[in-house]
User: What shape does this take?
Amino acid sequence: MSHLPLNALRVFEAVARTGSFRRAAEALFVTQSAVSHQIRHLEDWLGTPLFDREGSRPRLLPHGEELARALSLSLSEIENACQRVRSHRDGPLVIAAIPSVAVCWLIPRLSGFRALHPEIEIRVIYAMHGRDIDFRDAHLAFVFAAGMPERPGIRAEAFLPGISVPVCSPLALARLGKAKAGVEDILALGLLHDTDSSGWRSWLQRAGHAAPAQSGGPVFEDFNLLRAAALAGQGVALCPIAMIRADLDSGRLVQLSELSVLVEFGYYLLSGPAADMAMAREARAFRDWAFAARDDAPKLPSRREDASD
Assistant: This one.
């Protein structure tokens, strides 16, 4: 008997799992005809059909269902074994961070961790807001969310508040010719938007001011771009205090109002499962350092841990 047709078996498992040739093709990023070809190849190799092709949709025959169950279990075991190898201690401690945390909080302080733990090799990667973290590729992650993130097997801890206030550069404020700014002054300086105009609409509503029909001002898809525009004197931005604390303390940015938005949001530190005790110790060392290095800012509610932790 020739070697197992591994690619055809993988395609067959995808068809059985998704319930159709079309969805299997989409999941595998191949054409539907390629899926059909692999299924025919597997049936030829086995010497028996796997599907009842009567009717509008092929149905698995009993022995096809048995093969699909065995493949599903086997592929799951293979994936777990590969993950254990990928997560072996030989690799660095990987910290994923959304861009705002990476640039404004983590990197300016990272030398402190390296001085404390020169023996720990680390790698910092981006985490994208709104996308799930793949904890097969990262050990810890800084995220921004409305409320405590809840994922099975992942520990979530409140890290910094997301409270955001209007800020601008001293250069922009100087254009007003006065030290304080009201709502009309802020509108006159021009609004800078993070992703969309919803933040400013909320802030203006809280201020008891109707949002202008055309809010105007540029929209930035990344907080770091928004912050750069504010620092350059291009207008007023709603920025989380926790991320611009150094800018406020140094006078690079000026807070224009105590009225805040995004009070329900916060920055959280997520910890994934460790592959071994050595990696668990390194992850704990980083976690302990990060909490010790937090700015003296208002804290979010106490931490919640997954029941499996």
